[in-house]
Design a protein that fits this description.
Length: 320
């Protein structure tokens, strides 16, 4: 490959990584501070564990991975270094961040499925400590799997396993999970409608509470689905380029494919940019907490926001 062409490509892809560094690190850092300070005391619930881990992984992607990619690409553009390749430290760190994010979102989808379809089991068995352990195992597993690149394993075999483990399996699992959620919520809505018509003369307080619970379940299922959707959107372009490179012998070594693949690397980190915006605007408690952290609102003005999730959606809540 021509050195001038490689330098131009390094510079062209290095600048977006500088922008991603800022766009990912700043909002995720603010949200993580909001989780830590917890001004409204609403993030002590089970589901918030997933949001905290996803935010922490996104922050790792922004501060460590994007900064490393930017530095290496500028060294390539203005020095004697080459583009980061699979097996380099910065690539390994990138795989840790991306793979952890994918598996965390997959686990969150299964969590939402259990909370909606088996609410009593979820209420009794699923606790924040168990989810912390589960998410920690996911991050450790992703780190070990990404580190296999440093052992000298064939990169073709590694990428084949990676595609099925972090693309095929998550898509199949989350598709089944959200299909089950959709069927369960549709069935529950029909049962609740019949129950309300029978008990129309009873106290309206219970009906309002059940309606609020159903609305919150739908909202959080939709939020986690949107997070999953952006993960898939960010993954598909890069893995299409990888599949083309693996199966098209004529295309290998062509400049257009090399440019396409390196450009699509940037797409892998777009979900880390979208996640903080998506969760903040869809979850009112988080939005108000961020405003308190940024001193845009006083804590006393939003103390009446309420619980982060309804009791039947949380493993550690107390049933009323």
């Amino acid at each position: 490959m021509e050195r001038n062409f490689e330098k131009s490509l390094c510079l062209g892809t290095g600048i977006p990584f500088v922008l991603l560094l800022l766009l990912i690190s700043v909002p995720n850092a603010i949200i993580l501070v909001a989780f830590y300070r917890n001004p409204l005391r609403c993030f002590r619930k089970a589901f918030s564990v997933f949001l905290i881990f996803i935010t922490a992984v996104d922050l790792f992607v922004g501060i460590v991975v994007c900064s490393g990619e930017a530095v290496m690409r500028f060294l390539c553009a203005f020095g004697d270094y080459k583009l980061p390749q699979d097996g380099d430290i910065v690539k390994v760190l990138g795989y840790i961040g991306v793979n952890s994010s994918i598996l965390l979102v997959t686990a969150m989808s299964v969590d939402r499925f259990i909370s909606v379809v088996y609410p009593i089991f979820y209420l009794c068995k699923v606790k924040p400590r168990k989810l912390i352990l589960c998410n920690t195992i996911i991050v450790v597993f992703s780190s070990i799997f990404a580190s296999l690149q440093l052992t000298g394993i064939s990169i073709d075999i590694y990428l084949l396993i990676d595609i099925h483990l972090h693309t095929t399996f998550p898509i199949a699992t989350t598709t089944l999970a959200y299909l089950g959620i959709f069927v369960a919520l549709k069935k529950r809505s029909r049962v609740d409608l019949q129950r309300q018509s029978i008990t129309a003369r009873n106290s309206r307080l219970r009906d309002m509470r059940q309606l609020k619970i159903a609305q919150m379940e739908r909202k959080f299922a939709t939020t986690s689905f949107c997070i999953l959707l952006f993960v898939i959107i960010s993954l598909v372009p890069y893995f299409v380029a990888v599949i083309i490179e693996a199966n098209c012998s004529v295309c290998r070594g062509q400049k257009w494919l090399f440019v396409l693949k390196e450009s699509f690397v940037i797409f892998l980190f777009l979900n880390s940019t979208v996640n903080p915006l998506l969760t903040t605007f869809r979850i009112n408690e988080l939005k108000h907490s961020v405003k308190v952290v940024l001193r845009l609102r006083r804590q006393s003005d939003v103390n009446s926001v309420g619980s982060f999730l309804p009791p039947t959606s949380l493993g550690d809540a107390v049933s009323n």
